[in-house]
Automatic annotation (TrEMBL):
Catalytic activity: D-threo-isocitrate = glyoxylate + succinate
PANTHER family: BIFUNCTIONAL GLYOXYLATE CYCLE PROTEIN (PTHR21631:SF3), ISOCITRATE LYASE/MALATE SYNTHASE (PTHR21631)
Alphabetized InterPro entries for the sequence: Isocitrate_lyase (IPR006254), Pyrv/PenolPyrv_kinase-like_dom (IPR015813), Pyrv_kinase-like_dom_sf (IPR040442)
GO molecular function, one term: metal ion binding
Keywords, in A-Z order: Lyase, Metal-binding
GO biological process terms, semicolon-separated: carboxylic acid metabolic process
Pfam family of the protein (one): ICL
Protein name: Isocitrate lyase
Amino acid sequence: KVRAGLDQAIARGLAYAPYADLIWCETAKPDLDEARRFAEAIKKEYPDQLLSYNCSPSFNWKKNLDDATIAKFQRELSAMGYKHQFITLAGI
């Protein structure tokens, strides 16, 4: 049985890292703790691996984070090693 979640995502990221230009972390909501756990696990084995994070406009940012955390969210991601951060815009 497949157990979806962060541990599976980390295992998959570690398996693909030797072959991938970047590893993309996708979360259900904006979550710095999940992003940190993912980045630390990947960077421990592959310190030069490029990481990507989707700062989705479909996230309910205000429901999940306070204003101070929203303001520093992308800087925090960058400090963890997420050098490719993107925002998808549907319908453009």
